[in-house]
Every structure is written in structure tokens, then in C-alpha cells.
Amino acid sequence: MDNPFLVEVTRGHLVESRHRGSISVVDAEGATVFSIGDVDRRVFPRSAIKALQAMPLVESGIADKYGLVDEEIALACASHSGEPEHVRVAASMLAKAGQDAGCLECGTHWPMGEAANRALAASGGSPSALHNNCSGKHAGFICLACGQGDNPTGYVLADHPVQRKVRETLEDITGACHSIEKSGIDGCSIPTYAIRLPSLAFGFARFGTGIGLPGEGKAAAARIRKAVARHPFMVAGTGRFDTRLMELLGERAFVKVGAEGVYCASFPELGYGIALKADDGNARAAEAMMAGLVLRFLELGHDERKAVEALAQPVLRNWNGIELGQIRVSSEITGAA
Amino acid sequence: MDNPFLVEVTRGHLVESRHRGSISVVDAEGATVFSIGDVDRRVFPRSAIKALQAMPLVESGIADKYGLVDEEIALACASHSGEPEHVRVAASMLAKAGQDAGCLECGTHWPMGEAANRALAASGGSPSALHNNCSGKHAGFICLACGQGDNPTGYVLADHPVQRKVRETLEDITGACHSIEKSGIDGCSIPTYAIRLPSLAFGFARFGTGIGLPGEGKAAAARIRKAVARHPFMVAGTGRFDTRLMELLGERAFVKVGAEGVYCASFPELGYGIALKADDGNARAAEAMMAGLVLRFLELGHDERKAVEALAQPVLRNWNGIELGQIRVSSEITGAA
Q1: What is the pTM of this model?
Q2: Do the Cβ atoms of A320 and B189 come within 8 Å?
Q3: Could you say which of A121, A184, A280 has the minimum Cβ distance to residue B325?
């Protein structure tokens, strides 16, 4: 089955590039609300499920045991830009578990945020694992290991108690088998398990509503959603899509990007979970698709709608500020007439 | 017509993302040698035709009038990384025409090369238009304007004598009408005209062989090809695909990337011109496609083949150096059994 064109990029009066993809929107009972394209193909959720991977930390009571505050819980769900505040909060999480950056097994890269990248270079500094966009998630894993009484060393490996616990949580919340044969290794060295979009969407419908989760799970999901809504800067960073959208909509939309064109979301007031993938892995397409779904499903005020439209159909300009074209999401997604 | 999948990106044992595209290979008589996908769709060639845009500068004798040397002619064809050598050579071109960076109308951006970007920040500097990846092409335009006795101001505009001359050259070499209605504005503010891949490929077959060009055109094409083959660093930069491939193959392959997944090439010994586009605009796909065509068409020694295979099927590793997957170009391109 060929996935349809869902996003086009124009230049002048012509379409220059086109993106195909698939989308699944599911409610907390598992019923499909909306579906486009081949949703039976397995997808690596990558970083789009960091909030689900953070569930054991909160659900177990370990976040409370270490006194993690909202911005720390938000950072545990982040693909952050490596800005100074992100680095500070990651270090604080580790310190609360009596650890430091030497425990991080995510690898080191320069800050993903361009301004943070250059500011670090300008200061004569060099990056540590704290600048890795996944350092908050990893700090959360280290807290989980220490809180459970496990040695954190090797916490990225599939058979470490941390990853076993995370995998069990993912299977519980999505209802899908997470098999090693269908897994790969993520950019930050932890396993990523390929599952189908409707399972992923179902997991986010439950995460967004608590429906079908045990008491601790329901409370943990609510706490994580609230923490992220209060600190949308922590999950991404300056100018980033997730930060902008959640600054705008607060708890009405939990959205999280993953690498290779994946996006997941919960729309709690509707009880919907969403999972989508751009076939080619392109982030601009995945962002436009997600913004298009917000336009389709959420009731937005006039200013909110204008702001989301700017994310769904951004105008492209060059270095001189001249308008070149636009990214356009298909009306098949937005439902626009 | 749906374009076929030409490049896939794997993770673990699964395909994570897929790219579709179209390819045209044409000889200097205009006969199609090889074709994949819908090649009738118009494509913006973007920076892939910088070598053709540099033809008037050389053909007119103005490059000689100003004493431009090979590395300067190579930079006129470049999408460079903004490394110090690129900046130095762009400034030198302008000085030879009695101008300076204040004349550049390409806009300013931080160096495209990550190391150059951070080095500039670390030095406390900030970018000028000389760091723009198109500064060499623009310096060439300014030389052309001054050499023709035109005021360079506004040289990026479609009706300036420089862009009129460039458009005339593009029409002559590709045989295709370049219409304003089918044009857009490029990242560096000059017009880009959408034409069909076979016309683009035909232009590069003629550029690579000189067949069908007037005497000055034939000499200019040969001089540009030689200049680039001698200075492949100038057309791109450290670690970049075009630089690596031409360092390896010299005058046997002229290759040039364009934005939004476009690539053009000449294989002079075969008399072939090539133009391709990844539907989604992704550079990794376009690079793999181009490397796959080199594997298909050029007779390579053992070590050359290994090096080109590494460009066609690069192994993907994460920040810890762990192998995650691979980019794989289709055997429909390489012709591999």
C-alpha cells in the first residue's frame, strides 16, 4: 500500500518536494478514530515515547523519593536543545540520586540548539553527556536504577533491570509485544522497539486519560502531563515545535517528536492518542502533520488557530527574508474544505 | 506516476525510512541512457547547476581579464562550508574586480560546516556574507557584472544583465525554455527555473563533453571541470560528499549537490549527463543515489569501488560509535545482481 502525499513544500508557484506518511488516531478503548495510510507497518517510536519511558520513574515513587520537581520530570521526557537550563536540570537530577554526569551512557554531542552550540563554543567550552538531547531521560533512568537499588552501570542495555522495566511498561500501556527481534538501537544507545502506529496511539490515549491504567499509572501519567505543560521549554527548547505548541495549548495537547519523522500526542479532553510517521523520516513533514491534526481535532480560539496554522503551514523565507514558498499540510489531515 | 523507492534507511533488521525519487541519464546527443521514475515533472535545479551558472564568467573572457585562478573558478561553482579558505578565496575574487563583501546580495548565515561554525563562534567572530555557502557564485556574478561594465547592484534580480546572461546560457546548454512563470527564488535570492530532469541531464552531458557548444563554451566547460577537479575542497568542504567523491575520481566525475534532494553530474569519459531528485528533498537520499550511479556506470578500481560503496551504503553509528543501521541504495540504480 502506497502512503498518500500529506505534506508539500512549494517554491514560487510550484511544488518542490513532497512527503508521504501514515497517521493513526485511537481512543482510550482502542477504537480507531482516524487513520491515513498503511498503519500496519512497524515503526520505531524513537524519542516520541520518552514520556512513556519516564512512567516507571514516577509510578514507582522513586521520583518522589528523590524529590524530583516538575521541571526535572519534564526533562526526563525531553529531546532538549542542550541550552544551559537543560544542562543544569539534568545535573540536578543526577545529584539527587547521588550520581554525576560520569554515569551517563548516552554519549556526547554538541548542543542541538544552534545558539546554545555557538555559545558553548564561544565560551571555550566543550560538550559533555549532559548536552546530549537525551540527558534528561538518561538521568531519569539512573534515578530509577539507584532508587530500585540496582547498579546503574549498563542501564542502556536491553537486559538491565531499567530497560526490562521500561519495556514491561511500554507493553502494558500500548498492549503490543515489544520483541528484541523487532528492535534496534537508538541514537542514545537504548533499545527502541518497532510497533504499529495504532498500538502507539492507543498507548498515548491511555497516557492522556489514565483510562485502563492501574492507580499509580494513572497518577503518574497525570503528573508527567502536568509537569510538561508547566515546563514546555524543558522538553525541547527555544523556538522548537513541541515547546511552542505546548506553551500555546498547555495540558490540552501533549506532543512529542521522535527522530525519523515520528510524532506522538495525547489530546486528553477528547481522549485521543495519536501516532504518525513521515515515510522519509523528515521532521518538517512530521511537524506539519501534527499541527494539522491539532487544527482538525481541537477547538481553538481565534488566536490559537492562527498560531497553530503558522506551525502547520509555515512560510519559508531565505537569508534576506524574501518569501520563497510554504510548507502545506494536506486537507486530508486538517479536514479543511 | 508514483516514483519508486530508491533508498532505504535501516535500523536493526528493519527498514525505518524510505525515499523515492527520479533519475535521468542522457548523452550529449540528447538520447536517454537510463531513466527511473517520473522525469517529466519540473524540478528546481537549485545549486546543482552552479557550474553552468559560472559559464558566462569564463566563456566571456572576464575570468581571465581579472586573472581568476583555478581555486577561484572552483569556488564560483561551490556550495561551500564557510571554512576559512572558502572565505579567503571569495574575498580574493571580489578584490580582483575592485569590489568587497559589501556588494554581496546572497545574505548572511553562519558557516554550514559545523567545525567552521564553532571555530568562528569561538574566535568571537560573527558571519558575513562571505560565509554564505553561495558567496563564491555571487563573487563570480559580481566579477561578471563589473567585467561587462554593468553596475553590480541588483545582480540577483531576474532582469539584471547578469541574471539575463545566466538564463540565456542555461537555455542554450540545456535546450529548455527557462520561464519566469515556472521560476522561484533561491536561498541566495537569485531566480531558479524549474525544468525537466532530462533537460538538466542533457545540459550536463554537454558541459562534460563540450559537444554542441560553441568554441568558447567548450573551452570554458573544460576549464571549469579541470578547476573543480584540482580543487574539490573548494566546491564543498571538509568531509562533504562532493569533495570526497571528486578527490577520489578527479575529472572522471563532476558532481554537484543542490538543495531539496537534487544532484547533477557529468561523466565525461562516457559522455553522460545526470540529473536526479529525491521526492522529499532529502540530501542523504540524493547522495546515495548519485553514488549508486557512479557504481553503475564508471569503471572503478578495487579501492575506488570500496570508497564509493561507502558513500552509497554508509553505515550509521550513534554517539557511542555503535552501529545502528545503514543507508541502502536500490539495485535498480546500482545494477548490482
Answers
A1: 0.97
A2: yes
A3: A184
